Amino acid sequence: MTDVRTTDAGVQFLERLLERSERNPDRTRPASAAPEYDRLSTAQQMGRFHDQMAAAERFGAVEVQRGKRDRGHLIERVRVRDPELLARHLGRPTAPAIAQRVREELLQVAATGEPWVATLLDEMTARWARSEAAYRLTAGQADASKEFFTLLASISRQEAQGLDARTFSQKATNDTKAFDRHASRLAAVLGVRIGQPGAAADVVWAHIGLERFSHPVNLRGPVVVKGAGERLVDGRARPFASIHPEMISQLSVLERPKAVLTIENYASFNRQVREIEDGSLVVYTGGFPSAGVVELLSKVLTSVPDDVPFLHWGDVDAGGVRIFRYLEESLPRGPRPHLMSEELAKQSGHPADADPSLASIAKSDSEIRALAEWLAFGSDVRHMEQEALDPAPTSEFGREG
């Protein structure tokens, strides 16, 4: 019986040599390798391998170095002389040629998005030209890559906002499951795009406005939702009220709140609305703010005077700082930190490692840049969950300590 595994051992060997050449086209020494004679178990297989190396050498693709003296009948090493000739000898285009052809096909899709989508295509093409995968996609997976760029281009055009993943996937690609197939690579690309490499998927989806299904926004304060001449939701209800994002267009502010306070975690939100009566509008962000939370806050902040304090209370850690920064970047005006400071974290927090990924926030104009700098580069960093503190009135504007 023929051993299929070793029948084309010579072709496999030459393919590996070509791949080494393409992965490092600027190498100073040509790619080379020694034959694996232990895989050639018969004289017939060895003879075929030698014939294949000799044919490649005659074609000008490789240089064969034979052994000396009693090993003169064996091949010591094979070096690539000309990668393009080797590719032709193997009957396939070079990796750069394949990558360029795929790029031309995908550019028609990428060009429908924002410029950064085409830039990403160029970056992936450069990796394909070296026979490498890019975001776990190879140049041979043109259909999957087209689907991936179709989703990215649609996201860049803000077409994911307010949709659940399956609905968005259907609208963008005519396939409800396409998004799920590419979710991890989409999150990786978009995480870098929003300045948060490695961010959790739900953080990324919140940035692009994608929601599995919109959750109600929990709040307590002087706002109402009216419809058909009647009051549908009263934000002053105890302990708090819930407003669905689809009702935000009917929301209005009843009176000037003492402050607008957003709170990251549910336990702290519940304690704030139950224990503190100071006339503030308190909004639960649910961790990273959803599109509904951002929409509601945007409407509130454009409805109240600019001198109404806007505060945010969250965890003192990388996630809490990123949530704060997201609010700054997404709303008509940014918040001030409330009960979020280095001093409080040193008093009530626990030891933690510095996180240099916060450097971009530390170097920005953010209201939380000082805290971000300490968390990014401090020698005595401590993290603090906001539940470690009791709720406090907003009377001390922007209270940090």
UniProtKB/TrEMBL annotation:
Species for this entry: Bradyrhizobium japonicum
Domain DUF3322: 15-190
Protein name according to UniProt: Wadjet protein JetD C-terminal domain-containing protein
Family annotation (InterPro entries): DUF3322 (IPR024537), JetD_C (IPR024534)
Wadjet protein JetD C-terminal domain residues: 240-390
